[in-house]
Amino acid sequence: MNILAHINSNQEMQSLQEHSEHTFTAIKEYAAARGLTNCMKLTAFLHDCGKASKEFQKYITKAAMENIFLPKVNHSSAGAQILLEVCRSYSDMSECLVKLMLANAIVSHHGLCDFINVHGDNALRSRCYPEKALDMEHITAFMNDFISTEELENLFRAAHKELSVYLANFMKQKTAQDAKDYYFYIGALQRLLMSLLIHGDREDTRNFMEHTQTIVYTEDTIWQAATDKLESHLAEITANSSFNPINELRASISDQCKAFSSHSPGIYRLSCPTGSGKTLASLRYALHHAKKYHTKHIIYVAPFKTILEQNAEVMKQFFNEDLVLEHHSNIIPSQYTDYDYYSSSWNKPVILTTAVRLFDVMFKDRTTDVRRFHQLADSVLIIDEAQKIPVHTISMFNEMMNFLAYNCNTTVVLCTATQPLLETTTYPIKLASESEIVKQTKEMQEQFKRVHIEDACRRGGYSMNDLSDFIFQKLQPGCSMLVIVNTKAEALNLYRACEQHHEIDRLYLYHLSTSMCPEHRHLTLEDLKVHMEQKDTVLCIATNLIEAGVDIDCDVVIRSLCGLDSILQAAGRCNRNGKNSELGTVYLINSNEEHIEKLKDVRKGQNETNILLSQLHASKEGNRMDELLTLPFIRQYYDSYLFNRRQDTEYSTKIENRKVSLFELLSRARNINDSDNLSHPCLGHALKSAGMAFEMIDSQSIGVLVPYGDGEKLIEQLNSSISNAEKYALLDKAQRFMVNVYENKYKELMEEDMIYQLEFNGMLVLKDGFYKEDTGLEVRKELEDMFV
Predict the structure, then answer these.
(1) What are the counts of helices (DSSP H) followed by strands (DSSP E) for the chain?
(2) Which domains are seen in the chain, by residue range?
(3) Tens digit of pLDDT for each residue in 701-742?
């Protein structure tokens, strides 16, 4: 009898043996690169053997032939059972650890499994040996025909050797007194095993079900072609640029990046002043490094989609469009899995994504995120604006970067003008011995000094009307001004106040926030730049989305009080290109109408900045405000900020009313209620529980498609009778017309009759009348906190 794994829509059948073998084939190259060939062959051969049960064979045949939906049948536990039974005699501590790691990978390929859950219960045992007995008679018969017990044992012994190499390296890399880093690396290795198996399973399943073939890229050829294009582009810039000290320094920074690219994979810092051209400089480093070390990917990560939208345009000019994946919009609610299945596996050479997506790939429990994790190996990982890493995730981030860099051949580049001192935290990032890609010099700091700081904060703060008056006192005809505030509500209120109270003829007034879809923001920025170039009077009211990586050059910047890192980023939008004969001015102000009670990072940053301001005001050496921008004060800020927040770096939260640290769930061996041969003192990880609780920002968001510009036409098309395949093809374009809404609020918005769901995969769509041409999505004040 032919034991089936899949039946596709054409009633073609794939045997279970074929699927098992093809699953391994799909990940063979990845596994070999990581020294995990035997681990993955063993888990691939076992992962779906539960499908040989009489119940599953009846289920798959009936579901396919009658085209009906039936309850799922557990098929992931059997493979783990067979592994544990076949290898029962392998009982020393390291063998037991390897057995349990491989068993967990098998049972987790359709949903992660804790080793030990937050209650101290052995969750792995429950998954491997469910209450409902499995049909081991038919399953074992299939396996005996497929592969002998002796072959399984041989694979296990070889897999044990492979994982033992990792474990020995982890022990050498351990520096923490409590060994949490050692345990964390074991958990990260478990994620890597799961990622490879999930990728192989999904890749082969899709290839069979959809008649597709996996695209194989020749990275060395791609890197060479892109390098040639970039070098030609840089040569052209040099030839056409006028000679001045800033252009000379930009060229020097770029040249240093190219020269440094020969250093072996590790963790490095690219510390450059704002406006120094680090986007192209970091790409130049990445391309030359990727070419030398034959890496699989260049992955660029930005904190905001605005930065991605801008830098994607810069980077795409050096690559064929089909080689670049822009992945940053969670456009379908998580309960709808079809799009996750069709979406990218991150197998393109160049990936541009947000920090939220990267952190999900590293820590969330969704198998779609876990699948992508192995693509971080053998990559150049550029973390832009690294100072934006949330404090509560620092320990997790640091140790994951250490795991990737020193076990997975990943090169990590931390890019920012204001480097956070991640190497000084309790669980530090392990920088390479020679970690600075570009040497910081006094000349560089002086040449890139383009602004003067004025502290305009006042006792009691500014109301919106007061702040509007202050703005128009400082805004001169023919000048451009950028005002950055801490919340979207404040940005909208200030915009309306300026709209009503200004008396300037021909003022070009703009609003920028994430209440506007990416296409709206892009067009607004382009229009704003045109009028700035024409020396029109321009005023832009924005949130912090504009202060990092957005290439605009204003005469004056006003920044609502915040952390020093954000102040420096805001200053980078002022006199950015040094074209003004005099220094630009950055005013610091304090608002009495902002509501930042829930924005802990902003509040803590304000406190530390106030301490520095008080210190500078107390000086008897005259006005020293400009020293706020210098390296000693940046270091002082981070020394104090991170020290005072050292208790916040391990992601404390509650799971089932228990106070836990997610860093501990991912790293520390936990107490076990009932120890037996299905537990191990080094395997107390609760990867599923931690992943379910993890959110990089306060709440996961869902995209809402808005009727702005071509968004209206997209909505019509997605509502039409065109095929689902045609609709899926529209989803990339739809990202340009999305506004994010907090996941736990979208039902309330539906009740307000503001949004509805398309029949096509339940995508959320905003109804007409709620999207404004100047400010984007506007709602009643009591609903404002529903939007990200």
Answers:
(1) 30, 22
(2) 4-214+662-693 (1.10.3210), 219-242+249-441 (3.40.50.300), 458-646 (3.40.50.300), 701-786 (no CATH)
(3) 788 999 999 999 999 999 998 988 888 888 878 888 999 887
